[in-house]
Batch of 3 targets.
Target 1
Amino acid sequence: MWGVRALLVVNPQATSTTAAGRDVLTKALASELKLDVLQTRYRGHAAEGTAAAVRDGVELVVALGGDGTVNEVVNGLLADQTGTTAPARPDPYATAMLAVVPGGSANVFARALQMPRDPVEATGHVLTALAERRQRMVGLGHADDRWFTFNAGMGWDADVVAAVERARAQGHEASPGRYAMTALGQYLAQLRRPPSMTVHLPGADALGGVKLAFVSNTDPWTYLSGRAVRTNPRSSFGSGLGLFALRSLGPRTIAAVLREILSSDGDPHGRHVVRHDAVPLVRITSDVPLALQLDGDHLGERTDVEFLSVPAALRVVV
């Protein structure tokens, strides 16, 4: 592996690592790679630094952080190849490879790749995979001029993400308990003023009256206190997108759905549940602006979003 040029993108605010631990991981990688290190300082820094490194000829980018760091690195990896507005299928061999060392709270992308959850073990896993030339092609989602790796949504979940981001800006921890309480508060608000979306799928009639819409690029949709939340259990990085939608936010519907998506073999269904797997494209429209999130990052409000599946978009060290 000597001579492989690599960039380590470190989020110093990562919740499951310490400064001392990050220093150990950095030294381990530097012992085997020609390594530069970028410590992110602001939102978008990881994407900017990754894009610049790719232009400079870096062959591997290692993301040490949570899913937000991974998302920014992925967008940086593909920025110069496809631009910010063209969701055309990129050439995965025309950019650097990605490796992930989980350092956040959920680490959905890393866990979907079956990476070790411990950062030290994950670093060793990456170095072994590089020595053995192990890699896989990963499909991505694209929406609102951005790439996403595991999930996206409009409405309730995006409002929760926005509220938690505001709390974090005020110095509060983004703990599972905070997410749960925020989700309850946002649910009560949505119950009083239910949104209405229309879902458009290729070759199907438009489906109106949708109150909640999740889009998955893999399974599970996310994790809550270590427990998988499964909306589309047949989704995977190479199968296209999964759609999970509800036509009612009534308490009975929500209670039943929560039981199913939190069960170990989660396979939600029911009268108000809409499920589609392996679709190439999902378009969601609304008469009023609704919150949008990609990979847990709130992007503001939109009335019309197209979610596209892009197969084999990226090479990932596994």
Target 2
Amino acid sequence: MATNEIGEIEGYRTALTGHCYRMLGSIGDAEDAAQETIVRAWRNLETFEGRAALRTWLYRIATNVCLDALASRKRRARPMQEGPAGGVEDELETLPQEHWLEPAPERLVVPQEADPSEVASLRQSIRLAFVSALQRLPSKQRAALLLAEVLGFSAAEVAEILETSVAAVNSALQRARATLSREAVGEAQPLTPAQEELIERYVAAFERYDVPALTSLLREDATFSMPPYALWLQGPEDVGTWLEGRGNACRGSRLLPTAANGSPAFGQYRRSVGGGYHAWALVVLELSADRIAGWNSFLDVDSLFPRFDLPPNLPDEI
């Protein structure tokens, strides 16, 4: 196998990880699936006769790896998809991490060397709302939609990848679009100056733990979730009550900025008893106009923080 061929395949790793993330809803599973795709491609490169473009061949392998994985597992979800909003005194039921949709760092799933317009489109396709809506689709509908509408393959190319007919692909796309049209997925846009100011106000209010200021930044229907807990809250009043009560241990926290799923995100660090701060949550904010529509705190810091290049601890002075 020629070194340049190995390098060309390896150059698709980030793009393939992004495709697998949209399919599987887990950055850990996506990295594993992308690695399996590359290994299969290396092993079978001698049988690849150039009858299709290398890109098409690699996405065919990746899609099949994901379809095989999805055949033996349940779809990933967000707390808001599992039942109605709860109350601040409800029991905190914990579900396994593999039950929940995971956030993804953009550097692992969006090739930054791509054309700027393509980067913008790919960032939009990894939004939490969009990826969670995708998980509601049957796996082959999900694959057809992603191949056609995110990656730009023709119906004929999608049919070849999925080993089906063009008519079946068009039917799958029609059903998938109908399902997604019922989901509130919105659109991702670059942050406006007002939204940049909103994020600054959020950080300042959170670090001084000014609950009235925090809740004033929320939409009236804003959601607040904390996977792996199944409980989620809705509306500024309940969120404020939570922050003042059971969430009061977050008082004195520090936030370290990052980016996840095309949205502003932060590593949240709680004050440690012996000094300094320890990792507590990856916070991903979903914005709508000049308000916060979703406040998502993912508590699986052992898995997530290394992927986001966030340290496990912070000193007293940062």
Target 3
Amino acid sequence: MAEATPYTLIDGRKISSDIKKEITDKVIERRQQGKKVPHLAIILVGDDGASQTYVDHKVKACKEVGFHYTMMRFADTISEDKLMKHIDQVNRDEDVDGFIVQLPLPQHISVERITEKIRPDKDVDGFTNRNFGSIVSKNPLLLPATPFGVMELLKRYKIETEGRNCVVVGASRLVGAPLSMMLVEEGRATVTVCHKYTKDLASFTRQADILVVAVGKPGIVTADMVKQGAVVIDVGTTRVEGPQFKNGYALKGDVDFNEVAPKASFITPVPGGVGPMTIASLLLNTLRATELRNP
């Protein structure tokens, strides 16, 4: 049996806090120079509790760094056409630099149609086809927020990616697919993408120098699936309910942390790992959108 290694915990809360401080300083500098202060607009449809919590965190983050923000709320009965008209208004509002529509949306509204309606240069979630495709260009516009956050963690912890074997478990449009492209383009890594159709998943994950898991299935990755000394990035966050938890529920990652951590060189916790970086990346994108349109 391989000897356990002392691992480094990747602290997403600390890195997120560092990024917010850097953004705050830039906003102060822009104010002093008479330049435009970033303005983020948020649309929330319906009263989903988790979505409301996410939006509250985003509003709080805007206040922390000194951004202007506009909060727009609509009932879940709003028609797709009416929502599209509101998006058009925000697209035309030149004071708004960044713009997000909080997901998920009610079933009668097409996520793809709504996403593609957002102006790419204001799409600070990085969801539009133009921003997704720009990942493989030499000058990407606004990067998808969660993958951007993962890349920032790797960079700030000085984790080498060039030439290393990276395995991404999960091929979603939001995380797995764009992150795999970013690891190839920016990270110069050798990347394997696994998904629900992959046979013998463990045979791939055991080869990973850097293992990223983003499938939303608590504990799917166990110690026997991880190479000794691997870097483990857990993007999955699932609310698991049960009487054994103090609040009646707990947030669990896709990686069995207690089992896997002793084998890892670096590992993210859940919560407190990748999660805080998504909002930090959203703020970075909003600042970049502002700088591109108002240097």
